[in-house]
């Protein structure tokens, strides 16, 4: 299977015909199709497929346990296949397909790894369904407890435990899996760039190495009011939950500007949800990020103050502090790839969760000419994708060949 034939296989899965965007959420039918695809690709290559306690899929070339016993833990690459609502084709799948293509390239070249090479498909990276991003790697490494994960609910009130059962998995199996984590000597995630750094360089530079991930988190904002008739309730008699929420939206924008961060309210649920009914309850999700942890905290504090003035509540859903990738590894990769740039990112990744769990971790970014991500406009040329595969193959040769 070539890169382009794998890409063609994945193209229709979960694609919305009208927007062109993808809806691939954890433990849904689309997710099951993607997981079957991954398992079939592993089998086709004779890789050993294992599924950890969380449901992340690992395809191994070589025996990771024998290697670990010999003090030579494996080199793992890969990413995720799930998406945000109406996401692009590249965020996630590019890393998985490139990993398989890089393994093919190494095998075709006759390369014999001294360390096993693993390809991973992390489950539920975007947290689009249950709200917590990188759920698969968080539970794997113990950064989120299994109890909390099981109790997360989706927009229809279905818990992750129920979704796991419906997908044929035992929710009690969910939990940290140190045996799986120990097998990862080094992790390298290739990803589409989610900004314009590479496309605005004067030199033709299709690939960069990651330096760090900005501190980022998600908070749930809830404001309460009283449902009533939109036509007959006088303004002075209203208790409108939307007012406090609207104030929070403006406060988030102002605070982000003041503290040099970014803040987004991109998802909101209004009850009862009628055009002609005053809102009794608004729940919205604040996503805040920035280069400086204290500054991000200040944004959340400013928003909280406003929400509390309206009698509302702000609750933290997830928080990931400043996450530097292994600097020695980044330098080594940048040098090996001919002095390519080393850039930071405001996007979260499973690579960040692994880095925080102490795994030496690196990322490769492939140029995105639109600079847009989490949207159908996300893009990378096929030529750049193949440069990415080559770069990843070179990195794997270096890391698994010693
Ligand atoms: C995930 O892609 C995130 O950064 O929100
Ligand atoms: Mn994403
Ligand atoms: Mn991603
Ligand atoms: Mn991400």
Automatic annotation (TrEMBL):
Keyword Cytoplasm annotated: no
InterPro entries (alphabetical): Amidase_Cbmase, Bact_exopeptidase_dim_dom, Peptidase_M20
Cofactor note: Binds 2 Zn(2+) ions per subunit.
Sites where the protein binds Zn(2+) 2: 91, 126, 374
Cofactor: Zn(2+)
Binding site for Zn(2+) 1: 80, 91, 191
Top-level taxonomic group: Bacteria
Presence of the UniProt keyword Metal-binding in the record: yes
Xref: Pfam families: Peptidase_M20
Binding site for allantoate: 218, 276, 289
GO-annotated molecular function: hydrolase activity, acting on carbon-nitrogen (but not peptide) bonds, in linear amidines; metal ion binding
Swiss-Prot/TrEMBL keywords: Hydrolase, Metal-binding, Zinc
Entry similarity comment: Belongs to the peptidase M20 family.
NCBIfam families hit by this protein: hydantase (TIGR01879), PRK09290.1-4 (NF006770)
PANTHER family to which the protein is assigned, alphabetical: ALLANTOATE AMIDOHYDROLASE, ALLANTOATE DEIMINASE-RELATED
Protein name listed in UniProt: Zn-dependent hydrolase
């Amino acid at each position: 299977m070539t890169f382009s034939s794998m890409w063609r296989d994945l193209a229709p899965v979960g694609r919305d015909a009208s927007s062109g965007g993808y809806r691939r959420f954890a433990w849904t039918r689309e997710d099951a199709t993607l997981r079957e695809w991954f398992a079939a690709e592993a089998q086709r290559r004779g890789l050993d497929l294992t599924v950890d306690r969380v449901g992340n899929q690992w395809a191994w070339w070589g025996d990771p346990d024998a290697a670990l016993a010999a003090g030579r833990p494996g080199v793992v690459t890969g990413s995720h296949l799930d998406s945000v609502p109406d996401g692009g084709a590249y965020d996630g799948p590019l890393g998985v397909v490139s990993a398989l293509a890089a393994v093919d390239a190494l095998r075709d070249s006759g390369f014999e790894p001294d360390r096993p090479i693993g390809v991973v498909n992390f489950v539920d990276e975007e947290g689009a369904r249950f709200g917590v991003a990188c759920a698969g790697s968080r539970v794997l490494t113990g950064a989120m407890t299994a109890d909390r994960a099981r109790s997360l609910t989706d927009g229809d009130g279905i818990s992750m435990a129920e979704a796991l059962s419906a997908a044929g998995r035992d929710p009690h199996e969910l939990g940290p899996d140190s045996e799986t984590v120990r097998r990862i000597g080094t992790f390298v995630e290739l990803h589409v760039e989610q900004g314009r750094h590479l496309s605005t360089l004067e030199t033709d530079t299709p690939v960069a190495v990651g330096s760090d991930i900005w501190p980022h988190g998600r908070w749930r904002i809830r404001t309460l009011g009283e449902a009533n008739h939109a036509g007959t309730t006088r303004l002075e008699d209203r208790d409108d939950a939307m007012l406090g929420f609207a104030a929070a939206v403006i406060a988030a924008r102002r605070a982000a500007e003041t503290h040099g961060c970014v803040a987004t309210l991109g998802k909101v649920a209004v009850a009862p949800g009628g055009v002609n009914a005053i809102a009794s309850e608004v729940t919205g999700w604040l996503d805040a990020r920035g280069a400086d942890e204290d500054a991000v905290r200040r944004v959340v504090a400013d928003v909280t103050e406003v929400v509390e003035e309206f009698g509302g509540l702000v609750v933290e859903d997830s928080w990931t502090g400043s996450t530097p990738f292994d600097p020695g590894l980044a330098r080594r990769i940048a040098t090996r790839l001919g002095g390519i740039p080393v850039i930071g990112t405001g996007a979260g990744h499973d690579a960040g969760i692994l880095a925080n769990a102490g795994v030496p971790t690196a990322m490769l970014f492939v140029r995105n000419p639109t600079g847009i991500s989490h949207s159908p406009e996300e893009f990378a040329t096929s030529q750049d994708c193949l440069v990415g595969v080559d770069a990843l193959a070179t990195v794997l040769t270096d890391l698994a060949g010693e």
